[in-house]
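Hi P.,

Sorry for the delay on this. The queue was packed all week, but I finally got your sequence through. Input first:
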Amino acid sequence: MRRRTLNILRKPNTNYQFAAGNAGSRLQFRSRGHMAKTRQIPPQERTGEQLLEDLSIELRNVGVCDYGLPDGVRLVEHIFQVKAIHMDLARRGVDSRSRLELLSKETAWQMQELLDDCLAFLEKMPFARDPDGIRRTLRCRACGKAERPPEAKVFWFCDACMGRVVDAIRSRVPYAGIILMRTDTPACRCPHADGDTVLAMDGSRDFPSYGVCEKCILEDTERRMTLSGREQGRRMEPLAKPGMLIRYERY
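Then the structure:
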């Protein structure tokens, strides 16, 4: 039986152009229909209510993908889609506040703040915030009451909990969310350790199997302090070069 193939071609309805912020970067993207899709009615023919719904969809997509900041391609597509829709709404004088309040209740995220951060991208990173104001992707896995730095590598813990992990290793008393161990298996321990070294594992993971020593934690803490405040601009450099045009095609 011969297999039949159906190819569907979609053409853009309109183009949007943006100039990025102080970072001077320029990006070019084409939507591929990732995540939830906006309506395929040309933007100029959409009603204000339809545009508000499109904005809600794209803000949800940003919140779902915020783990990819700052250079996830799909995520950046959604961020610039938010910018495009917001520009349409502003041009028409449509107030989005009431819809964003409803969206905040639907998602349990602070959507007005997410919109503001999308509009300020690249100066700000649009992480979705929980009702308590903590960026959910950066929430500390140990205490759950503070944020880890985006540069966190060894453990996704806040700085205070990283200090508690060091104290736990030194005192040989486990801290909540931390498992202390020794192992003779090299594959399960950091390169600094041997069979007598006390190691810490992230107890919040389903199957913790790799331990790190005090030296690893202190090195990561120092690295966090070094990268803090600089990582955002440095990581965006490979994406685009100054002078390039941000061109986004709406479908």
